[in-house]
Design brief:
Layout: E1 12-16, E2 20-25, E3 37-42, H1 44-54, E4 59-66, H2 69-80, E5 84-90, E6 97-102, E7 108-113, H3 129-133, E8 135-141, H4 144-147, H5 149-165, E9 169-172, H6 182-192, E10 198-202, H7 216-224, E11 230-234, E12 239-244, E13 247-252, H8 264-277, H9 282-297
Helix pairs in contact: 1-8, 8-9
The protein binds 2-keto-3-deoxygluconate.
C-alpha cells in the first residue's frame, strides 16, 4: 500500500501523548545500587507509532516537549525511527523522565518524573485538526487523559475531529494506577467508549470501562453495545480475543522467552493497526498483533525490538535458531 502526501490518509496513523526520556538500569537489583543506565525514549502512543512505521506505514505523533536535552533526545529518537514529530517546544516545563528498575530477574518497577511535564500541558491548541482529518486512523490511550485536565481535553478534541472527518479511532485503555485514581479514570474513559471504533483492553482493564462480566467475551459484548465495532481483549501470555458484532476471533500468544515484557501491549496494538491499514481480515490482524508482541518482548526495550514486516516470521523459528 502506498500513501502519498496530499491525498486522503496522508498522515497514516496519527497519535498523541507523552514520550519521556527513559533510563533503564543495566543490572538487576535495587535502583539505589544501580550505576549504569541505558538511555532511550518511550511512551505508549509513540511506541505504537514506531511499530506501525516498521510495518510499512506512516505515523505522526503530536505532543509537547521541554526546551531541554531530554526533549532533543525524544525528538531525535522518534525522527530516527521514521515517525513524524509535531511537538511544540515548551520553554516553561521539562520533558518527562521515567526510570526503569529491574528489582529482581522477574519483577521490574518504573518510577515516573512526569508531573508538570511539558506533555502534561498538552491542550486542544496543540492539535492540528488538518493532520487528524488526513489520518487513516487516530490512536489514543488512557494515559494521556490521566496527565491533566487540558491533556484530557486534547484527547477529546482529537476524537471529535476524527469522528467529524470519518477517521476511525482506536483506544488502548492502558490504565496507569500511578497517574490517577480509579474513579476519575472510570469517568473519563467511559466517556470515550461510545466515541471510538476499536478498543484494546487487558482482561484486568475491562472493569475500568464498566464491563464487569467475568467472561471476557461477554464483557466485550457489553462494550460493543455502547458504540465501538470491535473490542480486543488481551490476556498476557494467554489467548487474546477480538470481539466484533457477530464475530469472535481467538489468537493464542506465541510462546517465546520473555526478556523484557514492557511494551507488549503497544506492540500488539501496532501489529493490529498495521493490519487494519493493510486491509487484513480480523484473524490476520490478530495474528500479526500477537507476532509483533512476541517479538517485542523477546528483546530489551519498550519498542526497540518491534519487528519489521520481514521479521514477523521470527515467531515461527525454533529456539536457538541462527539465521545465516
Ligand atoms: O507500554 C509501554 C509504556 O507504558 C512505556 O513505554 C512508557 O508510556 C509509558 C508509560 O506511561 O509508562
Amino acid at each position: 500500500m502506498t500513501e502519498q502526501l496530499g491525498s486522503a490518509g496522508a498522515a497514516g496513523l496519527v497519535t498523541l501523548g507523552e514520550v519521556m526520556a527513559s533510563m533503564s538500569a543495566t543490572r538487576i537489583g535495587p535502583l539505589h545500587t544501580a550505576r549504569q543506565f541505558d538511555m532511550s525514549a518511550a511512551g505508549s502512543e509513540a511506541n505504537v507509532a514506531i511499530g506501525v512505521v516498521r510495518l510499512g506505514h506512516r505515523a505522526t505523533w503530536l505532543s509537547r516537549l521541554g526546551d531541554d536535552e531530554l526533549g532533543q533526545l525524544v525528538r531525535t529518537t522518534l525522527r530516527g525511527q521514521g515517525v513524524r514529530v509535531c511537538a511544540a517546544t515548551d520553554p516553561a516545563a521539562p520533558t518527562g523522565l521515567m526510570i526503569k528498575e529491574r528489582r529482581t530477574g522477574d519483577v521490574g518497577r518504573v518510577v515516573y518524573y512526569r508531573a508538570g511535564s511539558a506533555a502534561s500541558r498538552l491542550s486542544p491548541a496543540d492539535i492540528d485538526p488538518a493532520l487528524i482529518e488526513r489520518a487513516r486512523i487516530l490512536h489514543v490511550t488512557g494515559i494521556t487523559p490521566a496527565l491533566s485536565q487540558s491533556a484530557a481535553e486534547a484527547v477529546g478534541y482529537a476524537v471529535t475531529v476524527a469522528r467529524a472527518a470519518g477517521v476511525p479511532v482506536s483506544l488502548d485503555v492502558n490504565y496507569r494506577s500511578r497517574l490517577w485514581d480509579l474513579s476519575t479514570a472510570q469517568a473519563r474513559l467511559r466517556e470515550l467508549v461510545p466515541r471510538v471504533d476499536v478498543i484494546f483492553a487487558s482482561v484486568d482493564e475491562l472493569p475500568v470501562l464498566g464491563a464487569h462480566d467475568a467472561d471476557p467475551v461477554r464483557a466485550a459484548e457489553q462494550l460493543l453495545a455502547g458504540g465501538p465495532h470491535t473490542v480486543v481483549v488481551t490476556d498476557g501470555a494467554n489467548v487474546a480475543c477480538s470481539v466484533g458484532k457477530g464475530e469472535v476471533v481467538r489468537q493464542p500468544a506465541f510462546p517465546v522467552r520473555v526478556v523484557d515484557p514492557v511494551g507488549a501491549g503497544d506492540a500488539f496494538v501496532a501489529g493490529y493497526l498495521a493490519g487494519l491499514l493493510d486491509g487484513f481480515d480480523e484473524p490476520a490482524r490478530m495474528r500479526q498483533a500477537a507476532a509483533a508482541a512476541a517479538i517485542c518482548v523477546s528483546a530489551e526495550g519498550d519498542w526497540e525490538g518491534l519487528p519489521s514486516t520481514a521479521e514477523l516470521g521470527l515467531v515461527d523459528r525454533g529456539d536457538g535458531t541462527v539465521m545465516r
